[in-house]
What does this fold into?
Amino acid sequence: MDSNKRPKVTVTTLGELYAAGQKITVVTAYDATMATLLDEAGVDVLMVGDSLGMVVQGHETTLPVTLDQMVYHSSAVARARPSAHIVCDLPFLSYQTDEIDALRAAGRLVKEGGAESVKLEGGRTVARAVEKIVNAGIPVMGHVGLVPQSVHRMGGFRVQGRMTREAEQLLEDAKSIEEAGAYALVIEGVPSEVGQAITEAVRIPTIGIGAGAATSGQVLVSTDLLGLGRGRAPKFVKRFASLGDEVVRAVSEYVREVRAGEFPDAAHSFRMKEGEKAPGRGAPDSEGSGT
Ligand code: KIV
It folds into this structure.
């Protein structure tokens, strides 16, 4: 084992961070390369989010993502053997049908995908599914507020809980997910006051995304955080780098060098063994010298 590796982050560790009042850091990862980099940077949790439907697959929503695809991406992240905890999303319609479907889907993410916990969206309506999965020994992270799998019910990706009645319902949803045994709860796309009220009302860590600063931790989509996406980012996104611009700069330089015959140069090329001749240019200087 690499002796510099930090200890594995488990749901117990996350509970300890919460109890100590230390903010929990979560970033999405969809492959082994990004998982390795994020882990080296010290994030607590790698989230294999179904946002990959939009970020990796280019869909308009997360709805087309399948369970097989989540297993594929989760196992790629798990192969990086990160110290960070791995939570993987249950995709649309893998858990809403009934609790047995939910448990089977969660089981696949753990058994085949190497996930260490699973996340699902919704409140009271999915509480029994949460309970079933938790009772089978799989930790569950809830997700309330702007729940992307319900994009059509919400009439788009819109901030939720701006009105008192809607905010009260979100609070009830959060409590029901806590009561069902979830170890943590994502709160997405709600006013800061609602993020704070839910955080104060439950005794599990809340992980905010567009939910203000009072939550127990924060999550961002990795491509947003790194500035890899083109186009306008949502208001809650802070780009901590502009890697998209850096990618374009680097690849343009590659294109220029290839076209100019500058790449590959000698430093990036192989040579035959001394005395050997290239095919069609005569016999080697001495027989057997190439062995
Ligand atoms: O799918 C996802 O990546 C998520 C986070 C943005 C919370 O659910």
User: Anything to note?
Assistant: The pocket of 3-methyl-2-oxobutanoic acid is lined by residues 28, 47, 49-51, 89, 143, 186, 188, 209, 219, 221 (CB under 6 Å).
